[in-house]
Amino acid sequence: MEDFLKSLPQLAAQKKKENQAYFKKLKKKAPKNLDSRMQELHDETFEEIDCLSCANCCKTTGPLFTNKDIDRIAKHFRMKPSDFIDQFLRVDEDKDYVLQQVPCHFLGADNYCSIYDVRPKACREYPHTDRRKIYQIGNLTVKNTAICPATYKIVEKMKASIPMN
């Protein structure tokens, strides 16, 4: 996994234009069975890849924190939401709450998340490859191929099993 992770940004960069073109075509005319096929590809790939052997998303990118996330996590720590924000978050250029730094403060050396049960919605849904109407998030999916080995593999499987000529 470690070797694949090291080569992932370069592999994703090499496929970026091809993947962007694929999602552009997919957006114009998505097959009727796309959602069910994507769920199959997602499930199949996550049987092969264990997030705990990777955690690259937690090491390299930070999620957005919604107000609900902040309230839930602050409650978990028995903190005021404002104290949680002050201690762990910052406001980014889009005016969203994000982590002050990466890797994620809540990621342990064993790649386990210390707030897994109350983690942000963005973390629960990552890498979004089982989302309905994936063609609506083509740009995000292409971006995630450089971060998440599973996303990279899912997109490659998509192109092979759902050709868009």
Keywords, please?
3 strands, mainly alpha, about 55% helix, about 160 residues, three-stranded antiparallel beta sheet
Please, could you describe this protein's structure?
With 165 residues, the protein is mainly α. The chain has helices spanning 2-28, 34-48, 56-60, 67-76, 81-88, 121-125, 138-144, 149-161; strands spanning 64-65, 89-91, 97-99. It is 55% helix and 5% strand. The chain has a three-stranded antiparallel sheet with strand order 1-3-2. Helix 1 (2-28) runs antiparallel to helix 7 (138-144). The chain is globular, with a radius of gyration of 17 Å. The two termini are 32 Å apart. This is YkgJ family cysteine cluster protein. Pfam families: CxxCxxCC. It comes from Nonlabens mediterrranea.
Total E-strand runs: 3
Series of secondary-structure elements, N-terminal to C-terminal: HHHEHHEEHHH
The dominant shape is globular
The biggest sheet, with number of strands, parallel, antiparallel or mixed sense and barrel status, is: 3 strands, antiparallel
Q: How large is the count of helical segments? A: 8
Alpha-carbon distance between the two ends: 32 Å
Strand order of the largest sheet: 1-3-2
Mean pLDDT: 97
Task: Tell me the fraction of residues in β-strands, as a range.
Answer: under 5%
Helix/strand-derived category reads mainly alpha
Residue share in helix: 40-55%
Rg estimate, integer Å:
17 Å
List the uncertain runs: none
Pfam family, one: CxxCxxCC
InterPro entries: Puta_zinc/iron-chelating_dom
Organism: Nonlabens mediterrranea
Protein name: YkgJ family cysteine cluster protein
